[in-house]
């Protein structure tokens, strides 16, 4: 396995808010099982390859394998996504220039960060 960071977004831009709301509806235990967690919602206020102005993405961290299978059409693809036909892009952080996105790479000029808070539902 191995630790990885990734940006996950819907292929159809119009589905992104629905996807974000679905992720918010899941409890922390769901993500504990996978060992991968949503950390932030990032909204781009200018083009930053591969993102366009106005795009939203969820920044996930965790185990490499789950990040690439937790929401994909394979044996781990959950029923909700099969029924709703979400198609997702999973982009590893190595594929995206960090300057303009993250403070440790300079000023955050290309996007707005919103903390993703998971609920404990028991």
Please explain how this structure is put together.
By secondary structure, the chain is of the alpha+beta class. The protein has a single domain (3-115), classed as Alpha-Beta Plaits (2-Layer Sandwich), CATH 3.30.70. It has four helices and five strands; from the N terminus they run βααββααββ. It has helices at residues 16-25, 28-34, 64-69, 79-84; strands at 3-10, 36-44, 56-63, 88-92, 111-115. A five-stranded antiparallel β-sheet has the order 4-1-3-2-5. The protein is globular and about 35 Å long. The model is unreliable at 72-78 (pLDDT under 50).
Topology:
Layout: E1 3-10, H1 16-25, H2 28-34, E2 36-44, E3 56-63, H3 64-69, H4 79-84, E4 88-92, E5 111-115
Antiparallel strand pairs: 1-3, 1-4, 2-3, 2-5
Structural class: alpha+beta
Assembly state (oligomeric): single chain
State the strand order across the main sheet: 4-1-3-2-5
Mean pLDDT: 81
| End-to-end distance | 29 Å
Name of the level-1 CATH class: Alpha Beta
Gyration radius, in Å: 14 Å
Q: Describe the largest sheet.
A: 5 strands, antiparallel
């Amino acid at each position: 396995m191995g630790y990885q960071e990734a940006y996950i977004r819907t292929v159809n831009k119009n589905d992104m808010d629905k996807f974000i709301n679905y992720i918010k509806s899941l409890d922390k235990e769901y993500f504990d099982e996978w060992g991968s967690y949503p950390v932030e919602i990032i909204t781009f206020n200018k083009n930053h390859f591969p993102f366009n102005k106005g795009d939203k993405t969820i920044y996930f961290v965790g185990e490499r394998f789950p990040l690439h299978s937790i929401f994909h059409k394979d044996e781990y693809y959950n029923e909700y996504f099969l029924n709703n036909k979400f198609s997702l892009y999973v982009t590893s952080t190595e594929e995206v220039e960090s300057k303009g996105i993250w403070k440790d790479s300079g000023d955050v000029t290309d996007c707005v960060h919103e903390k993703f808070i998971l609920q404990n539902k028991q």
